[in-house]
From TrEMBL:
It comes from the Bacteria. Pfam families: TPR_1, VWA_2. The keyword tRNA-binding does not apply. The chain crosses the membrane at residues 15-32, 63-83. Gene3D superfamilies: Tetratricopeptide repeat domain, von Willebrand factor, type A domain. Residues 287-307, 479-637 are annotated as: Disordered. Residues 484-563 have a biased composition (Low complexity). This is VWA domain-containing protein.
Length: 637
């Protein structure tokens, strides 16, 4: 700890007013002591001192000096003497950045090589690279203003869109900077930024536009920095076809940069004005690079130490302990007991839980009995929510659920305990956007996707700008679609398996019926032969070889029938496989045709960001033309 006299100061100097009562008390004590004996009115003053000397010495006590010393030490301690900063990181307020580009035809002027527009776009890209943090957006304006890129943290998006900007893609000709600045302000305001910076890159304004710009800059809460592009002499406007822009009377238009007017506007906007330079001085001036360069300074730099100071007042209170001991005497033991009692460590159960890892604590709570978080002497000093918070931090969620009176904390404890349906009911009672969001999370954990999506809808209805609720809702909708698709696929697969099984059963039944028919035919022939043999036996005897031949013929017929059935079944399987292969080939050909058509459609889409921006702004301008009256005073450049 180093003492720097230049940094020594008091954090709360108003406490020195408390010395005034001390002066009054000392004056009262002195007056009271002077009138304590009553002899002052009778004995002369020069004699009174000698007559009552013994009395004074016997009644004099250290009370007044100790009171004065204790009072002064207490006042100085309360005033907060300090001379050392506390090292701590300094975080800057989140700020939005919007680049407002002038896309009027005057940006085609050639007083700057190659022209104003090209240099302005290069400067805008350099500005994006220099900022390179936070949310950045891009707005372009001519006769009307359009948001080219909403606020994003991806700087490459702006760098990809800037080269495609040109006056020719703007659907409304002219120059209306008020609309451009208003669009940028609305972009920051809708994103919830309390602070922001508008970087306005322009080649000048008309005198008739000064009042509207002045009114806007005096009311906007955001800083407006201006970069002037062009020269005071000006130059003709060279169009894409090589011709110079002319007025209706045939004179050539020569726009000039009025730096004085832009500098006046920058002061009203609380920002800076700079003209375009060949190096990066202009961009660094706009971006206030000293704000970014401070991050690279040494750790002991005062600007990076924060505004917290190490207070020395509590150390002065230690000097009051002997005085307090002398004043209270026997009460010193009581003070020591109170001090020791207040400095006792936390109970054993709480200390163990704080030193135990979360994973081990979760396992222990499942196998060991839960120990109380708070001791009996702590609970009377805490309300129900404070007791529940202690149990919640100790991961004793069952106890926390019963202790909490606050519905939100009770739902959080139920959620952590795995009782998601009870947590959903608790969060629903809040009737707030955050409550419905938490209810949706609990229902999603419980597997109630439809109810969770409905809860997210309620949260978005109360707070439309709720990115977390929107993302969770979209995720659940995708998950629900996947489940439905999986169910449909399972049903189709089960149906196809059932159809295949039925087809196999029917084929098996057909094969069995064919076998029974073929087997019945030999039996009938054998019966007929037996009848003939009986008749022939009556007439004349037959040898046994004829009967054996007929039996062999029946067996051969049965074997031929089995072979014919197997051949037919094999032919059916081959035909089925051929049909499946043909269907697969046709499906593949259809997929190839579909992909080819999609490729052809994609080739027809122009790979030109400027064209897409132009179409986007044309559609937006068509919607606006019915809501905004035309400006007859607006020029075409």
């Amino acid at each position: 700890m180093t003492f720097l006299p230049a940094d020594f100061h008091f954090l709360r100097p108003e406490w020195f007013y408390a010395l005034v009562p001390l002066v009054l008390v000392l004056w009262f004590i002195k007056r009271w002591r002077s009138q304590a004996t009553g002899w002052q009115g009778i004995v002369a003053g020069h004699l009174y001192q000698h007559l009552v000397t013994g009395k004074q010495s016997s009644t004099r006590s250290p009370f007044v000096p100790f009171l004065t010393l204790a009072w002064m030490l207490g006042v100085i301690a309360l005033a907060g003497p300090t001379w050392e900063r506390i090292p701590q990181p300094v975080y800057q307020v989140k700020t939005g950045h919007i680049i407002v580009m002038d896309m009027s035809l005057s940006m085609r002027a050639t007083d700057i090589t190659p022209d104003r527009l090209s240099r302005a776009k290069y400067k805008a890209i350099d500005l994006v690279n220099l900022i390179d943090e936070g949310d950045m957006g891009l707005v372009a304006y001519a006769g009307d203003a359009f948001v080219i890129s909403p606020l994003t943290q991806d700087a490459s998006t702006l760098k990809a869109l800037l080269p495609g900007l040109s006056p020719e893609i703007m659907p409304v000709a002219g120059s209306d900077p008020v609309l451009g600045l208003q669009a940028a302000e609305e972009l920051l305001r809708s994103a919830g930024f309390q602070t922001g910076v508008l970087y306005w890159i322009t080649d000048g304004v008309e005198i008739s536009q000064m009042k509207g710009l002045s009114d806007f800059l005096s009311e906007t809460p955001y800083t407006v920095n201006i970069l002037g592009v062009g020269t005071a002499e000006g130059a003709p406007i060279k169009q894409l076809n090589g011709e110079l822009l002319k007025r209706n009377n045939g004179s050539i238009v020569i726009p000039k940069l009025n730096g004085g007017a832009l500098q006046q506007l920058s002061r009203q906007g609380g920002g800076r004005f700079t003209e375009l330079t060949a190096d990066d001085r202009d961009i660094r001036s706009l971006a206030k690079t000293d704000r970014f360069d401070n991050r690279e300074t040494r750790e002991d730099d005062q600007d990076n130490q924060g505004d917290e100071w190490r207070e020395a007042g509590p150390y002065l209170l230690l000097l009051l302990l002997p005085i307090a001991a002398l004043a209270f005497r026997r009460g010193v033991i009581f003070i020591l007991l109170v001090g020791v009692g207040t400095s006792l460590p936390a109970p054993e159960a709480l200390a163990q839980q704080q030193s135990t890892p979360p994973e081990a604590m979760a396992a222990d709570t499942a196998s060991e009995p839960v120990k109380p978080v708070l001791s009996w002497w702590q609970k009377p000093f805490l309300n129900a929510d404070q007791q529940g918070l202690a149990a919640y931090e100790a991961r004793q969620y069952d106890s926390a659920t019963n202790d909490f009176d606050d519905t939100a904390w009770q739902g959080a404890a139920q959620y952590r305990n795995g009782d998601y349906m009870a947590a959903a009911q608790s969060f629903a009672a809040l009737d707030t956007a955050q409550g419905y969001y938490n209810q949706g999370n609990a229902l999603a954990k419980a597997g109630e996707l439809d109810a969770a999506i409905e809860a997210y809808d309620k949260a978005l209805a109360r707070q439309p700008e709720f990115p977390a609720a929107q993302e969770n809702k979209e995720l659940l909708e995708q998950l629900k679609e996947q489940q439905e698709q999986q169910q449909q696929n399972d049903q189709q697969q089960d149906q196809s398996e059932q159809d295949q099984q039925n087809q196999d059963d029917s084929q098996q039944q057909d094969g069995e019926s064919d076998n029974s028919d073929q087997q019945s035919e030999p039996q009938n022939s054998e019966g007929q032969q037996e009848g003939q043999q009986d008749g022939q036996q009556d007439n004349q005897p037959q040898p046994n070889d004829a009967n054996q031949e007929q039996q062999n013929e029946g067996e051969e017929n049965q074997q031929q029938g089995d072979e014919q059935q197997n051949d037919e079944q094999q032919a059916d399987n081959e035909a089925r496989q051929a049909e499946a292969q043909q269907a697969s080939t046709e499906r593949t050909e259809r997929d190839k045709e579909t992909q080819q058509r999609l490729d052809n459609l994609l080739r027809r889409v122009p790979d030109d960001p400027a064209f897409l921006l132009k179409r986007k702004m044309q559609l937006e301008a068509q919607k606006r033309q019915y809501r905004r009256p035309p400006d007859s005073n607006r020029s075409d450049w």
